[in-house]
Design brief:
The protein is an alpha/beta fold and about 475 residues long. It is built from 20 helices and 17 strands. The protein has helices spanning about 1-5, 10-15, 20-25, 30-50, 60-80, 105-115, 135-145, 155-170, 190-195, 210-220, 245-255, 285-290, 315-320, 325-330, 335-345, 350-355, 355-365, 365-385, 420-430, 455-465, and strands spanning about 85-90, 125, 130, 150-155, 175, 185, 190, 200-205, 225-230, 260-265, 295, 310, 385-400, 400-415, 435-440, 440, 445-450. Helix 7 packs parallel to helix 15 (about 335-345).
Length: about 475
Amino acid sequence: MKDWLRSIPAVHELQNHEQFEALLRENHLDVTQLTKQLKEAVDQIRSLILNGDWYGATPGTNQFIDDVFHLLSGNIKKQLSYTIEKVINATGTILHTNLGRARLSDNAIHHVVETAQNYSNLEYKLNEGERGSRHSHVEALLKKITGAEAAMVVNNNAAAVYLVLRALADNKEVIVSRGQLVEIGGSFRISSIMEESGAKLVEVGTTNKTHLYDYENALHSETAIVMKVHTSNFKVIGFTKSVETEDLIALTQSSEDVIFYEDLGSGALFDFRKHGIGDEPVVREVIEMGADIVTFSGDKLLGGPQAGIIAGKKKIIDHLKKHQLARVVRVDKMTLAALEGTLIDYARGEKGVHNIPTIRDLLVSIDNLDERTKRFVTNLLQGTDNFQAKISPGTSQVGGGTMPDVQLPTLVISLKHHTLTAEQVGRKLRTECKPAIVGRIQKDEFIIDLRTVTEEEEYLLFQALLQL
């Protein structure tokens, strides 16, 4: 071991090697940075030798030097590679939280790129030549689409809930039904957010039943908000009772200085119910009923970037904009650009919303899926003998903690490889393909749902399967 350690070339000797110069050119690194990485690679090998884990060439040989630079090249590639990368979602889950939720429309993407590449009037009024507000860029669109008097955007819906409670109910009471004390992803609970905000939670009713009189009995001089939380990530069925939004609005309107606030969560600006999909309330409807304020997500059913949107009465929104927390949770120019690009598609009406991938994937017809699926399987079986394939009815999920009881009819492709297990197929597609491909595994079959695969991705998926 001592002889091996003594035979490791010095870093300054390795710097003079032609492979060092080649790595400088290939990776566009400066000498100082590459030297640092070379030293780390040598230390890594020295540690492996000391631990008895070095299985490369013997130090002092030409092959050992090749091994050093091979390790160094791999380290550089790993360090300079993006960890966020494109993935083909073949699971059929449209708002797949682990895969980034909503895909942006072409309009939104173009607007983000243009905004990122250039200076912009983010906080500047071009006509007046003076400082402006970043809130103004999407507020007019949100007012038009939702019917609200005013609106603002923060970095996610949890932040929106927190800001509303902190600014409007600090050290005051907020009445919420026990059946609506939801927990969202990552163990974030409405009750915990409320506690952090300084608001005092007043639970009414039971898990499965809450009546109007429960709210009425809880109202008193310390009540600031009657809050309704849309349970978008679960459903309670059976012996249940909840109070309608209209009744809660009427209750608060008859109570001085009490605000009705509804957290709509999923943020449906499009009425999916007209297409027989779910029963998500549309934001405009809740605003038109008379809600003082609503909050909802940007990257769920809305189909835009991660954001929390607050809409409602102008007096309340103006107060929120001036609160110190508004700066803490504000969004950057690229989020605003993505949201503006998405909202403009909504402003175009029925034709425009079909540009939004989330809505397009939700509404895709079974006939379209049938045609694409049959073509894909036919081409695959003609291109390779490695698979058995069958098409069968299935269901797609909306995902993203949205419409938990909705199962979208779809057609799935079930694949069995002649020599690889379904787990092996899935692993190879995830780890050896660029872009990576994620599907489902059921009963030792690799399942593909083309609902969430674009035509361009369909070709890449096809080629990846041929190469297996």
